[in-house]
Amino acid sequence: MTHTYSSETLRFQIKYKNRTSIGIYIDSYGMIEVHVPKGTPDESVLGLLERKWDLIMQKTKENKERMTGSQEKVYAHGEPFLYLGKTYPIRLHHNPGIIHDHVSFDGGTLHIHVRQLEDEKMKQALSRFYHQQCKALVEKSIAIHQGSFKTKPRSVRISDSKTTWGTCDSRRHLTFNWRLAMAPQEVIDYVVVHEMCHMVHLNHDRSFWRLVGKIMPDYKEKEMWLAVSNWKMTV
Asked: What is the pTM of this model?
């Protein structure tokens, strides 16, 4: 079945179920199913779709993009990049007289200041910005959550890991992935709490997860954000 609204056409399937409410489900391929109570008129289904239209279109687009994997970034005015869970455009500034290439953030735009307008130079500047921000954000989160622990980390390091968001070794040295600066603060907090809990329980046994859940009861939501968003956390 199809429905056109706001100059866009949506294709979906209606499935009649023994239920009391209407539910909209979008799979990883962007296919849409609407589960409705038996006897629900089509007008009610279409009305719900229109009320949720923007959200459905956004979710469908994200799922399709996730299936194709991360795309190579273009360093041009307006290209979107993640920072603290939100997408912001970049603005390029060519300034041969500056001492160091760097990035500044004004609350709405990521400004990339470079001596040479070369993609690699801009990528390096943006990567350094995320490294610096991640270190500050992680250290702030550690200070906030330290009260839940009797021991303290011995060191905090930011890495370029391709496989982990954070680690904690037996000597309480914590390491975090610089790409966490692209995640919402509450997701950063989860990774920090996760690794700090390893100062108490080095493995992922039941005691470990009980401690994580005690400090952050909704930690599974944070894990889910990382699972569905990691593909776009790139420079």
From this structure: 0.73
